[in-house]
Design brief:
about 270 residues, alpha/beta, Rossmann fold, N-terminal domain of TfIIb, 2 domains, 7-stranded mixed sheet, 4-stranded antiparallel sheet, globular, binds S-adenosylmethionine
Length: about 270
């Protein structure tokens, strides 16, 4: 399954309504609330660096890991353009191979662990994170909630038509396996000068309506909050807290994003 290949190049455009500054501020609030002293961060599933770059700018010593070389290439381009040097590694976090131990913080923002689609693999990565953290270090991450994947996105169809990009997003939810298959069809507007010859039947030619179609299929697991807590405990984590939708209260039944902080206890 090719995830975040072609889609990488439209990701930032489609995420332009996300307030990443507020997201970064919220992460800093969670760090403060956890009581951990954080100078270095390993960020998993860092994507195009939307959280990595602002954290680096704030002075954190941060390294990013992602499975998609396309996403990482864009992160690198952006960081170089902004003059923010970043350490970026292409890896599947399920087989996380990082040998700098005693980390202050491991972070994973915006659905990274929804892409880890079995509890066995979650246990594998959580255990490795536990080993990497210093005693007193904090693991911070969020997931799209079970409610969001099973009821809001599940078996739903969404779409948007913009000037330079249009997309259709067709979802199928399999409750037995708690898996959401997301079929993303996107259409990118082409520059007619770059298209050669007659591309349509005579009469249908319209230079303003030339699009190229791409498709990606993404698979996410709808983890229940209690499953995550259980796997964190099995991996060794002690103080575990969860929060709903960028607030500081426990998640509610209809929270769409759940944040977790878990401390490696001394
Ligand atoms: C929704 S994007 C989030 C990117 C970034 N954290 C952000 O907030 O913009 C999810 C990211 O998870 C990455 N990802 C998915 N499965 C992964 C895996 N097994 N190991 C590492 N990265 C993974 C994808 O390549 C993608 O960049």
């Amino acid at each position: 399954m090719n995830q975040y290949g072609n889609f990488a190049y439209v990701y930032d455009q489609l995420m332009d309504d996300v307030d990443y500054d507020a997201w970064v501020k919220y992460i800093e609030n969670l760090i403060e609330k956890s009581g951990a002293s954080v100078k270095n961060i390993l960020e998993l599933a860092c994507g195009t660096g939307n959280i990595t770059i602002p954290l680096a700018k704030k002075g954190y010593d941060i390294a990013g890991i992602d499975i998609s070389d396309d996403m990482l290439g864009l992160a690198l381009e952006k960081s170089e353009a902004m003059g923010v040097p970043l350490v970026l590694l292409e890896q599947d976090m399920v087989d996380l191979d990082f040998d700098l131990y005693d980390l202050d913080c491991v972070l994973c923002a915006c659905d990274g662990f929804n892409y880890v689609t079995s509890l066995e693999d979650l246990y594998k990565v959580f255990s490795k994170i536990y080993d990497l953290l210093k005693p007193g270090g904090v693991f911070i991450f969020d997931i799209s909630s079970y409610y969001k994947l099973s009821e809001v996105l599940g078996n739903n169809f969404m779409g948007e038509s913009r000037d330079s990009i249009s997309y259709m997003w067709t979802n199928y939810y399999d409750e037995a396996n708690q898996l959401l298959e997301m079929n993303l069809d996107f259409f990118l507007k082409l520059d007619p000068d770059e298209v050669e010859g007659d591309y349509l039947e005579e009469g249908l030619q319209d230079d303003d309506n030339l699009y190229e179609r791409y498709r990606e299929v993404h698979l996410q697991r709808a983890h229940r909050e209690e499953e995550i807590v259980d796997v964190l405990k099995k991996a060794g984590f002690g103080r575990i807290d969860s929060y709903g939708d960028f607030g500081f209260d426990r998640p509610g039944d209809q929270s769409e994003r759940i944040f977790f902080t878990a401390i490696k206890q001394v």
